[in-house]
UniProtKB/TrEMBL annotation, chain B:
Pfam families: DsrC (PF04358)
Active site feature: C109
Family: Belongs to the dsrC/tusE family.
SUPFAM superfamilies reported for this sequence: DsrC, the gamma subunit of dissimilatory sulfite reductase (SSF69721)
Name of the protein described by the UniProt record: Sulfurtransferase
PANTHER family listed in its UniProt record: SULFURTRANSFERASE TUSE (PTHR37010)
Function: Part of a sulfur-relay system.
EC number of this enzyme: 2.8.1.-
Residues spanning the signal sequence: none
Species name: endosymbiont of Escarpia spicata
Lineage of source species: Bacteria, Pseudomonadati, Pseudomonadota, Gammaproteobacteria, sulfur-oxidizing symbionts
Length: 136, 110
């Protein structure tokens, strides 16, 4: 269908439930995944809270969509960059985040980690390498 | 719009999808199928139940490509292809089966 594959980056910068941005981003990612492009997500600033393990929205009346991130692997979205400094600034480590994996069809369905912990400098290089960056 | 069955009224949206997911009962799928001139078999129910479990786990209705792959993995390769799924759900396994299962229209359904 498409002749050239482009690199799409979805940059997630906000906490999950105060605004609609995180959910909107996730929906756009899932819809965009149908187009067979090279898709990455990055989580910086309060955006890292989107991946926090054990989210509970029952008091807020909002739908808890955190488990939807676990479906990203099914949609062949396998590159989730998390900025190390953003985690540290919030007193978080990788262990506070949901384990997110994808299954590699070409490697006997081996389960592989989707989350890639990167420094601010490394993420800058990743962003530099993209064709299109959507900021949410 | 609405579906009436078992003495209850199940509200649906303009595309025929159930408005309140929690209202769903098997009879909803049966009534919807009847309107589409389909009789539900065990093979249909395998897919409908699979979709409901998928939604329960991930909070989304899967795109048809994702559904196909996942069905193949769970129910066997001979079922994980669009020919089989379209055979069961001629209006599209994503849209029609999700509707029967009481789910919203699939995310990524274009």
């Amino acid at each position: 269908m498409s002749e050239t594959i482009k690199k799409f980056m979805y940059l997630n910068r906000r906490a999950p439930y105060g605004t609609i941005y995180a959910w909107e981003s996730l929906e756009v990612v899932l819809i965009g995944a149908a187009f067979d492009q090279d898709v990455s997500l990055a989580f910086i600033g309060d955006g890292v809270y989107q991946l926090l393990e054990g989210q509970d929205t029952s008091e807020s009346g909002m739908k808890n969509f955190s488990t939807t991130y676990k479906a990203l692997g099914d949609y062949d979205v396998t590159k989730l960059y998390v900025e190390k400094e953003s985690l540290e600034e919030r007193g978080l480590t990788l262990d506070d985040l949901m384990p997110l994996t994808w299954e590699d069809e070409d490697d006997d369905w081996a389960e592989k980690d989707s989350i890639r912990l990167v420094s601010r400098d490394e993420l800058a290089d990743v962003l530099d390498d993209q064709d299109i960056v959507y900021s949410f | 719009m609405a579906i009436e069955a078992n003495g209850k009224v199940f509200e649906t949206d303009e595309e025929g999808y159930l408005v309140t997911l929690a209202d769903w009962e098997p009879v909803v799928a049966e009534e919807m199928a009847k309107e589409d001139d389909l009789e539900l078999t065990d093979e249909h129910w395998d897919i409908i139940n699979f979709l409901r479990e998928y939604y329960e786990e991930y909070q989304i209705a899967p795109a048809v490509r994702v559904l196909t792959k996942a069905v193949g993995k769970k129910l066997g390769k001979e079922k994980g292809n669009s020919k089989y799924l379209y055979g069961l759900f001629p209006y599209g396994p994503g849209k029609q089966a999700c509707r029967f299962a009481g789910l919203p229209k699939p995310t990524g359904c274009i």
